[in-house]
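Appendix B, record 7
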Amino acid sequence: MIYLNEKKIAVIGIDHGYGNIKTANTITPTGITEYDSEPIFTGNILEYGGKYYRIGEGHKEFIVNKAMDEDFYLLTLMGIARELNQREIYEADVYLAAGLPLTWVRKQRESFKEYLLRNKEVDYHYNGKDYHVHIVGCSVYPQGFAAVVNSFGSLKGTNLLADIGNGTMNVLYIINRKPMEDRSWTEKLGVNQCMIQAKNAIMDNFGLKIDESIVEQVLRTGTADIAGKYLDCITAVAKKYTADIFATLRKYEYDPALVRLMIVGGGGCLVRNFGEYDETRVTIIDDLCATAKGYETLASSSLRRRDKS
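Structure tokens (predicted):
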């Protein structure tokens, strides 16, 4: 969160991923369970519109338009609360900074803004605290690109940015610090595809249903406390998935001898753990909050320019 003191506006960046929703300082799985009455167990409970929602168990399924249901709006309220709570602020004017996959921005930007701005005044309860939020505006930026905006000045030559999230992989060429809009693509090759393949492989080979949390641990760290045959099975799937990532990048004319590759998003850990690549030519940005931080940088800079004009 960037706080614009002169206007008393909290600029809050929110990265609406399918696996996790990220703010500048927080990461929360996107699963939502609705209750008509207060849940028995506490923790990550949002109370809004007469309903209760437990947030953070599981992940959201892939949808081609993030404004299709209520989930991302509820996750936005949660993200705002978690950021405000960092500074013990419970009432604020908030300017939202969000994003969409690269090739979706042109068609969906305005509808997504309307979705996030549907209520200018919002009262809700989250984790034992009451929040009163006045949403004063919203900007929507391309995903992935925002993750490198804070280090943009250091980019030289030809760079390929691969933002590998849970649902999609966004690809963008940046040449001499200039993002090439006509050389950007979105592929449905997110980490969840690897997750599904790994679970299916365990079922096909051993007739067992493996808990998603175990597969997630293997993908994130490269190992888990399981028998070697199961670890080897998941590892084989992960290696094939990372090989598919590089094959897809080559489809878009990626040549490691000519192009430097930057990887952001949750897929970066898979590439590091299971991929075959030249470490001197590939940079993996580990900060999963980098995109949300970039949204805040872009929005606050725009607001300051607007105030001066």
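Remarks on this record: The two ends are 24 Å apart (CA to CA). Residues 19 and 59 are 5 Å apart (CA to CA).
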